[in-house]
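Sat 14:20. Reprocessing the chain from the morning session after the first attempt stalled halfway. Input below, unchanged.
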Amino acid sequence: MSRSRSLAHVLLAYVVAIAVGAAWLYAGPDTSYLWLDGLIADVLATLVIFGFSRAHHNSSFYDAYWSVIPPLLAVYWWSESTPDVNDLRNWLVVGVILVWAVRLTANWVYTFPGLHHEDWRYAEVRANAGRFELVADLVGIHLVPTLQVFLGMVPVYVAVTQVGRDVSWIDWLAVVVGLAAVALELGADTQMHRFVRTRQPGQVMDQGLWAWSRHPNYLGEITFWFALGLFGLAASPSDWWWLFVGAVAMVLLFLFVSIPMMEKRSLERRPSYQDVVDRIPVLLPRPPR
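Finished this time. Tokens:
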């Protein structure tokens, strides 16, 4: 299947998924909890993407879900909140999320080769599950990331529905941190794209931002979710003790799942990557040596 035709299939999947989620939100039963309505719609849309993944034998249908759904959730929560919420804060929150989502989705489109290709991690997860591969596909590849992202979006729910607090310096700090996170991801991905086009066999990336951190793109992603936590903190300081749970969960996901899988594969394919491991920190940057 050609790349353009593959993109059309993926676009159709997301149109159907979003339509199903919207049907629940605007025509389904009301749970009386705005966050729960959003969660149910999110899960229903995920199940639609899962159906397309199984029909095409390719779980990479889910790849763009990570960045497509958050702005839709934020806008829905804002549109359904009371008229007394702070519109300036909501514009700031949604603006940062949109910048992040457009950048990340565009990067996915740029690197998407077509449905003849599937992310190697998905195949590995299913293979390791054996006869339970369908469960691993549904839960591990589709539902768990959806719940992870939803947990990271909970501070956004607080920020766009909370009333009574004016925009403060914490909101502006969240804007700066969020946009800096997007800039870090953009810089890291751009440098990696250039490296991939010109690298020699066996060569490993240890230049630019990648000389300071082995995974600067993941560092940017984690930082973005902490920025969302700051928005929630600005809207409701008394909830400080749980507003960053989603961001911490992102840290755990990258440190104990994504990064180990990536590094194991890199070491298997390029033994010289061990030198990078020895010289460059895994996540938090330090000057190259």
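The CA atoms of residues 255 and 283 lie 9 Å apart.
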